[in-house]
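Thread: Modeling a multi-component assembly for a lab meeting

Hi all, long-time lurker, first post. My supervisor asked me to bring a structural picture of a complex we are working on to next week's group meeting, and I have zero experience with this. I have the sequence lines for every component (701 residues in total). Could someone generate the structure of the whole assembly? Inputs are pasted exactly as I received them:
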Amino acid sequence: MKLLEHVGKDIFKENGIDIPVGIILSKDFDTKDLGRFLNTIKDGKVIIKAQVIGGKRKKSGLVEKAESFDEAIEKINDIFSKRYNNSLIKKVLVEEMLDIEAEYFLSILYDTESRKPMILFSKSGGIDIEENEKPESITVDILEGLQDKDIQKLVEGSGLDCDAKLVEMIKRSYLCFIDNDCRNLEINPIIRTSSGDYIAADAKVTIDDSGILRQEKFKDIEEDESSLNDREKAARRIDQEGDKSHRGSTGKTYIDIEGGEIAVLASGGGASLVAMDAIIEAGGKPANYTEYSGNPSREKVRRLTELTLSKEGLKGCLVIGGKANFTDIFETLSGFMDVIMEIKPRYPIVIRRAGPRDKEAFEMIRKVADEQGFDITLYGEEIPMSKAAHIMVQKIGDANA
Amino acid sequence: MHEPFLTGDSVVMVQGITGKEGTSSTISMIDSGVNVACGVTPKKGGQLVEGKPVFDTVKEAVEFNQHISISVIYVPPLFTWNAVKEAIDAGIKKIVIIAENVPIKDTAKIITYARKHNVDVLGPASVGYLDTMVGKIGSIGHKAPAYTKGNVAIISKSGGMCSETASILSQSGFGQSIVVGIGGDPLIGTTYSDLFAMLERDDRTEAIVLYCEIGGTYEEEAARAIKEGNLTKPVIAYVSGLFAESLGRSVALGHAGAIIEGGRGTAVSKKKVLRDAGVIVADYHYEIPELVRKVLKDEI
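Re: Modeling a multi-component assembly
Sure thing. I ran the full set together rather than chain by chain. Output:
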């Protein structure tokens, strides 16, 4: 889960990392709250930042400066009138303007080469860090913990003198990363003020979706979904809502693809990737990416199918997966057929699946297809997965010819 | 890894043997010809699963059978690190982790701890390991028609694609020697290249098929190892996730590790790196058997 800047900063604060003084405002904010806050800022100068997940905030006009109460109101309203990724801005963070002596970059992540936590640091922070020189990096023995001498090596390697306050900040950032089950923690920039303090002026934090289950504090934090469309949001709820069964994962990832023509319902992580690629390789246009696995209930598959097939402009549907070990093929494909019976699509459907009760499932589908005149082609393991995807694309070509 | 993970002499223990998957896997491992000695589930000591004794701790299990060489771990993801540590502390040198969704922090600890104790870890999220002449460990299948005896090794980030890849090879008459599911997590205990030395020494194996995915650096690491001459046998690779680049957002697809971050780890770049190292890259997954045929007949 990616955290909004202000949520990330709350965690920084808990871990003893200094952050700017600020106030979070929603669209219907009380101007008195803003006024009281501005009175606590010594020169009244503030920076206003839209709280959205994603990059290029500044370039999108979602970060503004203000030097007076009136200007702040104007800029805040201006930001609230804008959109980011087609979504409304829900919150802005208003913070004291820091007096900047220098801007640094800090990022902590897991490095796949060393298979260890890695800390990256650069003395050239700011928005264009990617274009600057390569940051200095160190890896950490996660069982020994981060040692002061390693931090010293990191800071000095970047061309700075080692400052105890900076070392302390990096140490606390690492502990924050570890203790909160972070996947990534980036502070860009760390601001060194003229009084020699180090302050986290931004926070980009991603919590590990597997580790978040043991982090009580994140239980009530709502994930920011402003980058998702309604269908994508609804797909995410399938596993939590309506159905009492906890089996399986259904629509955890659902992505709409603009201009797509082939609805895809894939089972298995690898199979879902192979199927998508195979459609494109054959010249087809997938309408979505999604995946279900782990023997979900009929109802869950029905809901995912309903969402997937609710898209306009579909010309075909591919249900694809390998040979399941324990997913009940009859139950899951029954959920699929519930929707087919309801919407009665005229486009071709290709199903490639095998596993427990597959014969029963195929028999049921054949019967329904015959009765209703559906164009459904069924394959088991005898046809390679990527071939089945090619056949789907061919069938659409034939239907349109 | 220089020696095969599983041999005819291996003695296996199952941590989490009383769970649904632990039990069904125990049955199929025994069926494949593997010697499963016992299992461990805290507070369930004294029970029997498929006639095999269950102990509360790994220590007791190791006292019961001093020849245990492999532990297969079927405990839930949040308990996996403790289970692995317990096995390593009891002297087990080979561990297979089946659980998906192990927190990345715990995996980093597992890998570091295993390295300090010279332990080989397969997974997390591994479907298992199959030697068609010996048997299997974990949830991987072992029966025809998908799996048949032969001389092609498969290493795959995806469990499902182990059987899909084996299946299309078997249909074309190419049986398998060793099939390994390394898992699709961002951090894994055994990478493609960690298996190269063992496969290079395995007399049966004449060609190696890699099922690869976007994200991370393990394909790049494999290419580097091949370039350095650590594997001289022919390698055929398929990289999935080409479509991900057109999505325009950074999201994990199918597996936690299958994510393009900061424009790195794309299918295009991985294919190029592998090709540059002399790997034969299949553009379509179903082309793999034909490429294997050509390689084995020296047509490529």
